[in-house]
Amino acid sequence: MTGDKHLDALLSTPAGSSESAAPTVAARWRAIARSRDDAAAIRTPEQSITFAQAATRVDDLARAILDTTPTDSPVAVEIESDIDSVISMLAVWCAGRSLVMVDPFLPDDRRANILELSGAHLLAPATVVDHELHETRVVEPAPDDPAVLLFTSGSTGTPKGVVLAQRTPVNHARDGRRFMELGPDDRAAVLLPLSFGGGLDALAMSVLNGATMLLWDVRRRTTTGLRDWLSAEGATTAHCTPSLLRSWLGELDAEDAVDSLRLLSTCGEPAHRTDVELARNTILPRGVFCCWAGASEVGNLAFNLFPPEREVEDGAIPVGIPASDKFVRIVDEDDRDLPTGSTGEVIVESANIASGYHANPELTAARFTSLPDGRRRYRTGDLGRLDENGALALLGRGDDAIKVRGYLVEPLEVESALRSLPWTTDAVVTADREEGRLTAHVAVDPQKWSPSPAEIRHELGKTLTPWMIPRDIVVVSEIPRNERGKVDRGALPPPPPRPTPERPRGLTEMALHRFWGEILGLEPQSFGRHDDFVKLGGDSLAAAKMLSEVQHHLQLEVNTAMLAEAPTIAQFAQRIEAAAKERSKNATGATLIPLRKGHGDPIFLIAGAGSLATSLTPVVRALSGDRPVYAIQSRGVEKHGRADHSVRAAARRAIADIRSVQPHGPYQIGGYSLGGFIAVEVAARLTRAGETCHPVAVLDSVIDPVLAQRLSGNAPNVAQRVRDSLRSLTKTEETLPDRTGTEEKKPAGSPVQRVVQEIALNALVLTAGLVPLSTPVQWVVFFRLGTRMIRRHRPSPYSGPITVVKARTNTDDPALWSHFTSGRVEFLDIDGDHISMIRAPHAAETARALDEIIGDGAP
User: Fold this and answer.
1) Domains in the chain, please, with CATH?
2) Disordered: where is this region (predicted)?
3) CA distance 322 to 392
């Protein structure tokens, strides 16, 4: 590689060898620095330093530390991803002191706690500048002298100070050489914070192997420009966490491959098959993917390499072959070794693990044992198993496992199933032993689909047994993480409160309980007669399916209004039994649905094409205040009745519904999608009638291109309209969201078949609301009808204010809204796409935007 025999011999020294010329981190650094001399040691986007320059600075700072800090006192250093921090870390080691790494992102109380517990002297940045060196002092620490006092993240309890010896970083360097082939020819991009264990390991594996370490501070710089910088620097390896990998590479595609990159590694949390595929499809098409695992107490634990040709199985990736000088055992509760393939506690035996916990002899004695041959044994508390090839798979903390209905369930296995879903960007599963249940927090990609908890449960049911499916599923935009990138379990939003399950009473409740369980993907014992349909994860589609089942099997007349007013099994059963006795229609009619009771002037929201009024329930429940809220849905979408075929006709019907509740203004009106156009038309007609309207809330009403062309005076000619019509034969299914994310597109068929299908669909659209259809077909028909209504719409003159809430995927020209009103038009941008903005987790942000509009007061 370099032609330096001394360096080659140093790098090839086997782990545990008594002939090692550099058994300490201080000695190895000095030997590497002498051999590498003018080669670049560390580079950031702003700075670069050679090994020779770094060695001089390290020696100067080491002497200053010896002169200015108490003997045997640990030295605390504020660690950033920069050259000064690396110099300071190496200097502390070369001074023979124990390094305490302080992360600048730590909360003040946590920082103060670490300094107090360690008794460390905080190294000031001006130590060398202000200190006059009087003599040359050289320290030669011993291999077992303390080198690092590493405080754990506290994710499993009170933070503990783990004592690592001088030999530990050397062992990490050997692992980097053995498993990743890191050496002087490499340019290793360390994207991990250097202030925690994974970053410390990556530093040792790069610099102590003579590689050039490339530092990019992701937490301060984000990932913008990172790929281009790696390419410009000719990075050969990159090292990060799986969560960073997902957020970063999710923005890239195959054209962003980094040609120089031969290896990409992850650590800090389990990696999954989807992570490998993401890397291979973006920056690493021909390189090796390496996932490696470790812990503060054991350093590197295992490595698993995936060359381009190696296939990856579903789920969490096994952590792989044990690291250098790490002997792994799998034992039962009586400390007896288990056979290959059996699950038990992971025990690690090695001379290169921590010597114990700082100032905590009781805990040290409980977890560490000295062996006769000079090695130590550490009880990890993790569950794992070894396969026939000696590869280790970690299955989570032993205290995380939970028994559900008598079956032992590992949350990590459920997490793996969640991560395999196409919408999922991140997931964590927690266990409640007292209640014997699991809770899943799922971060989703709204560009693919924002699923309801019911949809997630159904997808999990394809791969998991029923008792493994979490009772509570919370959909979020991202999983909260602490300053070290680990899941901050204390910051996870709690699931909606639910009552203790109470068994259904009577035949009607029992039938409803069965329908709800099947549609929502819930085990019968996990919910009861007082659980709320929406809090159980039911969305508009699930509600439509459930109402259809009730009507079909119980022969009872039910509708969305009844479910909105009576959202539990007990309440809903009473309503439908009363409806069966009276055989009368619901008093509010087929289109006006009360979603929230309250006081004061009501809010009226008009639903989108084909959607039940309950589709707006997540937004309504997140609204502040207690004003009553009514939703208006299309005629015929639920009950028999010919649907309106124009925005103006729908507006006339909506006005009748609105005045049945509130005869006179001022009115607060809004609408989602198609409903937004109807809402503006309603406001125009009411103001012409002498009424007053507050600002109309338009929730992501997308202006169809045909309407946009007409509004702007560029209406297409007849030939163009024919071409647009033919193109729409295949466009409809592309427009509709994939409700599972897994369905493959069906062949469109021959042109003749497509024309026949289009004729049939047009016939259904013409008779929308009159012909009973299955729920999915009904949705498609009303979606197509809504599209036609928007294309043909000719806005009535209106002079009142409009506020348009736009999802981030809405690319409409804002100027087009000036054709809908001569009054003020304002815009609010929110996260999510057209569908996800009214679903968790984005519904809360949509509700805040709606609150802002409502709070504007009079126009």
Assistant:
1) 22-386 (3.40.50.12780), 400-491 (3.30.300.30), 590-733+751-859 (3.40.50.1820)
2) 485-505, 728-750
3) 7
The Cα 545–Cα 519 span in angstroms is 7
Phi and psi at residue 212, in whole multiples of 5°? Answer: -80, 125
The pLDDT of residue 728 is 40
CA angle 795, 732, 813 (to 5 degrees): 40
Query: Exposed, middle or buried by CB within 10 Å (0-12, 13-18, 19+), for 809?
Result: middle
CA atoms in the 13 A half-sphere facing the CB of 297: 21
11 or 662, which is more confident: 662
In 3D, which of 240, 393, 397 has the Cα closest to residue 319? 393
> How many CB atoms sit inside 10 A of residue 265's CB?
27
DSSP code for 98: P
Q: Residue 36 is inside which H or E element, if any? A: helix 25-36
**Taking the mean position of all CA atoms in its chain, how far away is CA 576?**
40
CA distance 367 to 353: 12
Strand, coil or helix: what is 710?
A: helix
Taking only the tens place, the pLDDT of each residue in 673-700 is 999 999 999 999 999 999 999 999 999 9
Cα–Cα distances in angstroms (integers) from residue 419 to residues 132, 134, 275, 369, 443, in the given order: 57, 59, 10, 37, 9
Q: How far apart are CA 573 and CA 505, in angstroms?
A: 10
384, amino acid identity? G
Q: Which residues of 50-67 are buried (b: 16+ CB within 10 A; e: fewer)?
A: bbebbbebbbbbbbbbbe
| Cβ atoms of 194 and 207 closer than 8 Å | no
For residue 699 the two structure tokens come to 């929730």
At residue 301, what are phi and psi to the nearest 5 degrees?
-110, -45
Nearest to 238 by CA among 172, 304, 302, 186: 186
* CA–CA separation, 407 and 413 (whole Å): 13
Quick one: which of 515, 639, 612 has its CA closest to 573? 515
- Mean pLDDT of all residues in the chain? 84
Bigger pLDDT: 576 vs 746: 576
What DSSP character marks residue 830? Answer: E
Q: Tell me what pLDDT residue 136 has.
A: 55
- What integer is the mean pLDDT of 501-516? 82
Under DSSP, is residue 749 helix (H, G, I), strand (E, B) or coil?
coil
- Round to whole Å and give the CA distance between 297 and 152: 9
Structure-token pair, residue 775: 């729920």
Residue with the bigger pLDDT between 421 and 655: it is 655
Return d(Cα 128, Cα 46) in angstroms, integer. 22
**How far is the C-alpha of 217 from the C-alpha of 18, rounded, in Å?**
38
In this predicted structure, the answer to whether residue 432 has a pLDDT above a threshold of 80 is no
